[in-house]
Design goal:
IS402-like_dom, 5 helices, disordered N terminus, DNA binding, 197 residues, alpha+beta
């Protein structure tokens, strides 16, 4: 196979493949930035300048992509400290940023008719707590399973509609109604927002 060089494109690399999936694109940043809570500037004792939100978001994406602990985030990458990334993730989660982003993206997909409402899928995955806390008492008889379980409701193409977290010993069937209740109203088309798949 012979590679023919194309002007302006590096040889041997597919232009559609990103080398660093934790780098936030301009398009994604334009959607996320208005959702982030604004911090008031302190004039009396300003301290050092905060790390820009976009860099911190890249650090959060790096931690989620690689699976490392926040405290082991390399400073050389320029995302700020791991503690900074963890605090902003906590603050943004409490402010409802991720829920708002999820609802906005679902509305865009629904407006473009890219959601398959003809069927839905419920799935779950069990996650062991390797360095979890201490036991709080005896495990339930016969159903003991340490860790957590992620339950997920998706539409026909696999786009997540709702997710909940339960104890590791919960069955998918018992969580179906909770998943349906957790699904946000999906806007994007004329009429009332869709609440069920």
């Amino acid at each position: 196979m012979v590679l023919v060089p194309v002007p302006g494109r590096p040889v041997g690399r597919c232009p559609a493949v990103r080398t660093s999936p934790w780098i936030v694109s301009d398009d994604l940043w334009e959607r996320i930035e208005p959702l982030l809570p604004k911090k008031e500037r302190r004039f009396r004792r300003p301290g050092r300048k905060p790390v820009p939100d976009r860099q911190v978001l890249c650090g959060i994406m790096f931690v989620l992509h690689t699976g490392i602990q926040c405290k082991h985030l390399p400073q050389e990458l320029g995302f700020g400290s791991g503690m900074t990334c963890w605090r902003r993730l906590r603050d943004w989660n409490e402010a409802g940023v991720w829920q708002q982003l999820h609802e906005m993206l679902l509305a865009e997909l629904n407006a473009a008719a890219r959601l398959d409402w003809s069927r839905a899928v419920v799935a779950s995955s069990h996650v062991r707590a390797l360095q979890g806390g201490f036991r709080q008492g005896p495990l339930p008889v016969g159903r003991g399973r340490v860790g957590s379980k992620h339950h997920l409701l998706t539409e026909g193409h696999g786009t997540p509609l709702a997710a909940i977290l339960t104890g590791g010993n919960r069955n998918d069937v018992t969580q179906l109604m909770h998943l349906l209740d957790a699904m946000p109203p999906v806007r994007g088309r004329l009429g009332r927002p869709r609440r069920k798949p």
